[in-house]
Design a protein that fits this description.
The structure is a single chain. With 598 residues, the chain is of the alpha+beta class. The chain has two domains: 199 residues, Beta-galactosidase, Chain A, domain 5 (Distorted Sandwich), CATH 2.70.98; 381 residues, Glycosyltransferase, CATH 1.50.10. 33% of the residues lie in helices and 19% in strands. The protein has 14 helices and 28 strands. The strands form nine sheets. Strands 6-7-8-11-17-15-14-13 form an eight-stranded antiparallel sheet. Strands 1-2-3-4 form a four-stranded antiparallel sheet, with no helix packed on it. Helix 4 runs antiparallel to helix 5, helix 6 runs antiparallel to helix 7 and helix 8 runs antiparallel to helix 9. The longest helix is centred in the last third of the chain and has 21 residues. The radius of gyration is 24 Å and the shape is globular. InterPro entries: 6-hairpin_glycosidase_sf, 6hp_glycosidase-like_sf, GH15-like, Trehalase-like_N. This is Glucoamylase. Pfam families: Glyco_hydro_15, TREH_N.
């Protein structure tokens, strides 16, 4: 089995670009001009031919100590050697502009000496279009121009251009900036780069100050919120599932997927997590994105971040894959799947945003009801039909319990919205249908002999998505059926103290990795069931697997504790936020901390 490389990277971004930076200084993943565009640097997926942007000492990489500047998405990596020490600041400018921000497609790297005498060199090796075509680098009088499919890019610096082109060593005796931009080369100077760092840091501080954090694990929650913010595309309001493609869910398998798109389900969960922390702008922008894609035709599970269907799935044969593990995919075939939980998540998103008193919609509210009605009517029709489930099975069409439960959510919450819009007859009719659906779910979704809710109606397999049933309101978390499910899942679905999605075989055989959001669902479910100490224990155990800067991928390999799956995974950080808030509220109530200053 191939060794699992470390996902110990930091993520930088500004709503227009995302880049992964290794503690060695290497930018190992960057796609331009959009999150779902072709890669410029992809060493994460091919150490030899993917492309990289790094700082070398004596011609070699060295590992530093990486940390985010407090309450920001600005990365600082400090390097200490016998000759001296230095630091690298990586950020994507996020600059004040009126009541909002300007987010240029640009990243900046600042090198600063800290002591001694350090000699460094720059290895700037872009490989445009996933390394598939030729990349040319031209030395202009004040910058480097990168030409090829997906270009042009411009690298500006206060180093002599010939030093970068020739990878020549230089003495770091003062600050050096390296600014990489797409499309055009702004006239950058060292003082401007430093000023943009100050503005960006201040902007992130202001954003963080408006987060309403729980008392339980507030630092982890804030880091997760900052991570989620980076997944929101400034131009359209789309929210992507993850920054990367093709990091396998398990080594030695073909479970490699492209997550750089807007899954409507995942985006709805992100919107709600940020709303619970006091950030509503992302939700407002996503609603606009949702209306645009909904009015364009039948809803699909995922879209490109411009609102168009994602690219067809294809395999890149020129990249060897993460740790040499392929295939490397771009595009995602799930765009054509039937995922019937979708209506429930979207109705939930609409309901929570439309009834939040902090948002003033006025007459615009009425423009959302046709979409609500469409989602509810689709849920009524599709509830009894087979689909591919939240887990996107490629060929296993079944009547999945979670999908059916989310159809119930769409109908039940849709009835509440119909009442809000003075559609009393619709509200009554939908609520009657929802009541019948709830009966079906509780009768056929629970296997009394096995003692747990099952993956499919009348089924036999456990499925961790059903840990959400009390959160959705389908039954009380202290209902004996759910308490029994909790016990059974703890025995049947855990590996190394972490929760798997399911154990039964799917299109690619039996799964082996634990799915990190499921572990957070487990912690939250334990808290709701009144098992608070156990919930805290599970939560803290999961947090021990975060990478050194507090980020999570999709999966954890239970044998090694290494992160697997696309990274960082927005869904995982949503699970952390929701579990922390729930645990915090229940701990405060239990311990009497329900008054100011208590």
């Amino acid at each position: 089995m191939p060794e699992i490389p470390l996902l110990n990277h930091g993520l930088i971004g500004n709503g227009s670009l995302l880049a992964l930076v290794s503690p060695t200084s290497a930018i190992e993943w960057l796609c331009l001009p959009r999150f779902d565009g072709p890669s410029v640097f992809a060493r994460l997926l091919d150490a030899e031919s993917g492309g990289v942007f790094r700082i070398l000492s004596a011609g070699a990489e060295t590992t530093g100590e990486m940390a985010y500047e407090p309450n920001t998405n600005v990365l600082c990596t400090r390097f200490t050697q016998e000759e001296g020490s230095w630091e690298l600041i990586d950020f994507a400018p996020r600059l004040p502009k009126g009541w909002g921000e300007e987010t240029p497609i640009r990243l900046t790297r600042l090198l600063r000496p800290l002591g001694g005498r350090v000699r460094l060199s720059i290895d700037f090796d872009p490989r445009l279009d996933y390394g598939r075509g030729p990349t040319r680098i031209l030395a202009l009088h004040d910058c480097l121009e990168v030409q090829g499919t997906g270009g042009p890019l411009y690298l500006q610096t206060n180093l002599p251009i010939s030093y970068v082109m020739g990878k020549r060593e230089f003495a770091l005796d003062g600050p050096i900036f390296l600014s990489l931009s797409y499309g055009q080369a702004p006239s950058m100077t060292l003082s401007q780069a430093q000023h943009e760092l100050e503005l960006t840091t201040d902007g992130w501080h202001r954003w963080s100050k408006t987060c309403g954090l729980p008392l339980f694990k507030p630092g982890m929650v804030l880091r997760s919120a900052l991570c989620l913010k980076l997944h929101a595309y400034e131009d359209t309001g789309a929210i992507i599932a993850a920054a990367t493609t093709s990091i396998p869910e398990a080594m030695g398998t073909e479970r490699t997927w492209d997550y750089r798109y807007c899954w409507l389900r995942d985006a709805a969960f992100v919107v709600e997590a940020l709303r619970r922390l006091g950030h509503l702008r992302e939700g407002e922008r996503f609603l606009r994105y949702l209306r645009n894609v909904a009015e364009a035709g039948p809803l699909q599970p995922l879209y490109g971040i411009d609102g168009n269907p994602s690219a067809p799935e294809q395999i890149l044969t020129n990249l060897s894959g993460f740790g040499g593990q392929g295939p490397v995919r771009i595009g995602n075939a799930a765009v054509d799947q039937r995922q019937h939980d979708l209506m429930g998540e979207l109705v939930l998103c609409l309901e929570t945003l439309l009834r939040d008193p902090r948002l003033v919609h006025g007459e615009e509210d009425l423009r959302f009801f046709p979409l609500v009605r469409r989602l509810v009517e689709e849920a009524i029709v599709l509830a009894p039909q087979a689909d591919t489930s939240i887990w996107e099975f490629r060929s296993l069409l079944r009547n999945y319990t979670f999908s059916r439960a989310m159809c119930w959510v769409a109908i039940h919450r849709g009835a509440a919205l119909a009442g809000r819009f003075q559609e009393a007859s619709l509200a009554s009719a939908w609520e009657n249908i929802a009541a019948r659906e709830q009966e079906v779910l509780l009768e056929r979704g629970f296997n009394a002999g096995a003692g747990f809710f099952t993956q499919t109606l009348d089924g036999a397999f456990p499925d961790a998505s059903l840990l959400l049933l009390p959160t959705l309101g389908l039954l009380d978390p202290k209902d004996p059926r759910f308490l029994s499910t909790l016990d059974q899942y703890g025995e049947r679905l855990t590996e190394g103290g972490l929760m798997m999605r399911y154990r039964n075989e799917d299109d690619f055989g039996a799964p082996s990795s634990t799915f990190t959001i499921c572990s957070f669902w487990w912690a939250e479910a334990l808290a709701l069931a009144g098992r608070l100490d156990e919930a805290v224990e599970v939560f803290e155990r999961i947090c021990g697997f975060a990478n050194p800067v507090g980020l999570f991928s999709e999966d954890i390999d239970p044998a090694t504790g290494r992160l697997l799956g696309n990274f960082p995974q927005a869904y995982t950080h949503v699970g952390l936020i929701n579990a922390a808030i729930t645990i915090s509220e229940l701990l405060e109530a239990r311990d009497g901390k329900v008054r100011a200053w208590s």
